[in-house]
Amino acid sequence: MPPLWRQMTWWVLLFPAAMFLAMGLGSVYLLNWVHVLSGVLWTGADLFMGFIVGPVLRGLDPAARTAVITYLTPRTMLYFPVVAATAGTAGWELATRLGYTQPGSPVLMWTHVALGLVLLMTVVGFVFLLPNNIRVWLELRKPEPDREKAMRLNRYNIWLSGGQGVMQVAMILIMAHFRI
Fold this sequence. Notes:
Elements: H1 4-7, H2 14-25, H3 28-58, H4 62-97, H5 108-141, H6 147-175
Helix pairs in contact: 2-3, 2-4, 3-4, 3-6, 4-5, 4-6, 5-6
C-alpha cells in the first residue's frame, strides 16, 4: 500500500490558497467563487457519500466493501476538512465584507443561522468524522485488519456524511435569502 501522503487529494489545497489570495487582494468576486466552489464540492461529496456510496457499500460483499473503503478513506482525509474549512471561512469573510454581519442588516438573522449551522457541521466534521476516518484508515493498515470493525466505523461516517449533506442543503436554502 502506498504511503498516506501519496494517496491524499493534494489538489484540494488550492482552495484555501485561492481564499487567502482573494482576501489579500480584497476581491469579493474571487472570494465568492472560492466560497461557492468549495461549498459545492463539500456538499456534493457529502451527499454522494451519504446517499449513493452508502447504499452501494451495503450491497457489496465484505471483501469488496473493504477494498472500496481502503481506497476511499485516505482520499477523503484531506479533502473533506479542507473544503469544509475553506467554504465556512470564505463564507464568513464574504458575509463580513458584504455587510451581512452588521447590526441592522436585513439578513443578519439568516447570517446567524448560517453561522450556527457552519459551527455544528464543523464540530461534526472535526470531532467525529475526521477522527473516525483516521480510525478506519489505521484499522485497514494493519496486517490483519478487522473488516467488521472497519465497515462498522465507515457506516457511522456514511450516516454522519448524510446528515452533513442535509444540513448543507438547509444552508443552501438559507443562503438563497442573501440574494433576494
